[in-house]
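Q: I'm teaching a short session on how sequence maps to structure, and I want students to see two examples side by side rather than one. Could you give me a first protein with its sequence written out and its structure tokens following it? Keep the formatting plain so it prints cleanly on a handout.
A: Of course. Example one:
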Amino acid sequence: MKRLFNILLYLLLAIFASGLAVSGVVYFLLRASVPDYDEDFSVAGIEGPVDILRDAAAIPHISADSAADAYFALGFVHAQDRLGQLLRARRAAQALLPLDQTIEVEPSTAQALDAYAAGVNAWLGLVSEGGRGRGSPDLLIADERMIAAWRPVDSLRLAQAFLNDLQPERRQSDLSGLSDRPLLPELFVTSPKVSLDAWALPGDRTASGAPILAADIRGPLSLPSEWYLADIQLPTGAAIGATMPGVPFIVVGRSERVAWAFRSLSLTALKEPVSPTAAKAGNFLMMLDRLARSADVNDAMDASMNLAPAGLEILAIGREIFARWPDREVETPLSFRDARLAALDVRQPIFSVEGAIAAQRDTVSTAARALLPIMAKELWFVGSAGALKENRADELRGDILGQLAQWNGDMDRFSPEPLVFWAWARALQKRILQDEFPSATTVWARPNADILFAVLSDRGGSAIWCDIRPSTRIETCQDQVRAALDDAIGWLVDRYGPDPSDWVWGEAHALNMGWAPIRSSGIISDLLSLEAPSSGDPYTLIATLFSSDNDRPFAASAGTNFQAVMSFSEEAGSYFIAPAGQSGHPLSRFYENLFLMWMQGKYLTMSTDLSLARGGAVGTSRLSPVSVDTPTIQNDRSR
């Protein structure tokens, strides 16, 4: 027995020691791929030295003597911080553009694409020399033994994929059961993967007298963030703002003379989706290149008006004026978000930069304000007439309706009313549409305020959708509203208990940012994800889109993922924020350092003044040219 005990003990110790050794090796490999922001490099492909200053948030400020060297350095830092993201995006976009297709772009844009690709490959060459843990933790679990060199066509592919993501997704038009029902166009269109929004204020509407430009981007909420902040000190002047890893230009940002942003058209304004082509992607990149080099607002408009993709509006401001292209506002149906912004605009005639930021972070839902009075009008009426509370269900229903009657539509994460409202709306939509499309759960499982408003307001006779087709009697919308409220209360009691004070919006509406590796890695992705209770809904100015998960219907894995407020009223008049850090490496302290700021509504101040960036800087790196090609890239592939 003693001998058996010793054998088992030694076996356990051996397993424990082996586990420690494996853990140590894995940790060493992971730590080896965390970039050192104070490390200098000798690289081929640049004409002169390039300095990369990382400020307190690890945002790179790139200083070079030529535009080509600056874009080389941008490719280098993109690969240094987001190599896994670059490779994942390239893999996803490979089918869009044939590899050998040639796209004509302007010489300056072609030079930027070539230099950017050389910068990415320079980092790949350094990784293949060894000692850097394959450059990204994704590559330790992915099956990519050989990494193809980055090519300019890869950046074109990513630009084309971005334009494609701006298009609304169309459902199949052969959904059954529509012959005797008024058409609901909202049934056939779902939200695009990415949407852009922007609004500007002229100088006579601002406290400083200088125009203000506010920009939002909505898309996936992932780790690393979809956007990467950078300052590129070009010979024509500095440009700062949000870059898209894989593309060598500022997408939304400002130079020393012009600030620019984009607004994509609403879903209902696009009669037919516009299919992005490689040529349109090239035009888009040329437009971004021109915007960064524009002398003033008029020059920016002249340089980009013939290159803007269909479905995008360009907004630009200078020190005194602002302009848009097209030069007249595109006629689009007013969305719930537009209605909220218009209400804030009327209520506040003069804005400061802080006021613009507060408007961007607004969490009052116009959708709730529009739908709730229609849904509850008869129920509020009955309740106020002194209806007898015969049992606990009636009492609970009355308490809930009383709470909703005093609610202002604020989707605050600590409040119960948002949860009650959206559970009610979800149950109502299910009752209205499930009988028509019993197997198409995507049509009725996720609440759509536009569909509900059209039906409840009887737009074009749409109230007939409330009738349950298989039943013999004709159900009215008020019948469905009453039944849906009981459905919602039952769901809430089962999920969160019988006390409405325990029903908190943030518990159901959690913002989930999952790690997005090159390939799905299950439990590892779950461990590296971030989750926090969140305010807002799909129709608030800071948007959070509901998931299609039946167990967690109000969880948000997509929504607003970048915001900026820009003005030329002061030297540091540019404020940017993204919901995660600059680094894509989970062991870096800059992996999630911006998440708390994002949740608290705090913005980063970015300036083209390098003396300000040096305060609290976390590293300074220099790229020096070498005269020979690096031997680690062979046959366009890196080990």
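Q: Perfect. Now a second example for contrast.
A: Example two:
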Amino acid sequence: MLTSLHVRQFAVVEHAEVDFGTGLTVVSGETGAGKSLLVDALLLLAGARADSGMVRTGSDRAELSAEFDLAALPEARAWLAQEELDDGEACQLRRVIRAEGSSRAWINGRPASAGQLAELATLLVEIHGQHEHQALLSRAHQLALLDAFAGHEALAAQARELATQWRELGMRMRRLSGGEDREQRLELLRHELEELEQWALPPAELAELETSHRRLANAGRLAEGAAGVVELLDGDSEFALRRALGRAHAELGKLAMLDEALNPALELLDNASIQLGEAADTLGRYAQDVDLDPERFAEVDAHLARLHELGRRHRLPVAELHGKLAELRNELDELEGAGEALEKLAAQRERARADYDKAAATLGKSRRKAAEKLGKEVSALMTELGMAGGVLQVEVEAAEGDEPDPQGRERCELLVSANPGQPPRALRKVASGGELARISLAIEVATLGKDSIGTMVFDEVDSGIGGAVAEVVGQKLRALGGQRQVLCVTHLPQVAAQGHAHLYVSKHSDDGHTRTRIQALDAEGRRDELARMLGGVEITRETRAHAKQMLERAQA
């Protein structure tokens, strides 16, 4: 459920923060005030394409954010967890659009792509109206809607799982058989294993080889350097450290005879002399023992060169070659013993295919029955919504191909005739935005409570209607609000009166700047706004009384 929407420097809105509750929230305002900006903001947060024209004049960027409560949306929580974007039962979508046209998006404070926004938004909100960004225009969604209407969750899940199982078994069989190049694959595996067994090393041995290579490559420098340090420590030069330390010890010894307090310092010099001598002896032995072995160096260097060559061939770091060895050995064992395994997999795949055919046939039969029922219910609602003679047909046709399909063996297309005598056309090709919005509303009412989307938005669903039909539209929206959170932009008082909450959008101009304000109306404010919608510029006592009656009747 949408809990809040925040916009800053967006179009004519300088700053607005709106809180939302359950039920039906209606949005009204004067023409040109920017009623649909809330819908536009949600579309952008749902991944719609952004452009610099959406940034308020004089600003460097527009900022949009929305908060959702996911307590009743397990699919959205699962998607966020899968994408590692989860943050408990709350979700924040944020988008920044810059004046030069670029934009950035975040989900729960972490960077996200517009594609991720769009994918998540399909689980959070449905937007219906005079926009093409509607889930109902997708054939895949139409099929899912039909399945939800008919209660096909278990049947559809069974078909999907069996199709997936059939495909996975096929992949395992192809991997085991090696396809048409099995013998070539076996020969290649044996060759690669022989190479890796000869050259690849476990991590500890590889580290030891690299250390040995460094030592052998620098043997001359190490011997020469160690001997030089010995000369500095205990050489014949009068500047050698041990000689200087001896002189310091002798001088301090004389002073200690005058003051015993210097004896601890004298002992430290004794210890330093001993340690310096041990260091010189150790380095002297090291300089004599450094392994100047060109043949061993060549051998180690060749081994490392071979390892790097194998790493490039297998596209792996040298340290991972030993792990690749185990992987190739397992694959070779599988291929060499593939005969019996292939027979078992083939039998399993045949059973999966038979089970799928049975489940898909049951699902297809139920889909065709449900399609007829859904078409009749939506057609009846279309008449109530001012589209007399309008018809919706749910066309179920066979999917292409004979292989098990996770969606079943059918595809679905919603066909609509908005007026008597017109042939049904695909819903996605219906031209009128107002008709499309009302058809969407009829479908939503007919399938009330059948899908898991928590928030539905209708942008001027009442376009082109009035009178009794408008009141019916409002009643249907209110009924829908009893099951889902609904946001509706409207210009009709009959619809606005049915809202559980009411937002008013107004436009103000001062100092040469135009600003849009969005405010939640209390009971008195709602009465006055309905009176304005009923009576126009001049609001009389009679229009206020009429508005009060409409509100009381709607709340009864």
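Q: What should students look for in example two?
A: Point them to this: The chain has a mean pLDDT of 86. Also worth mentioning: The radius of gyration is 39 Å.
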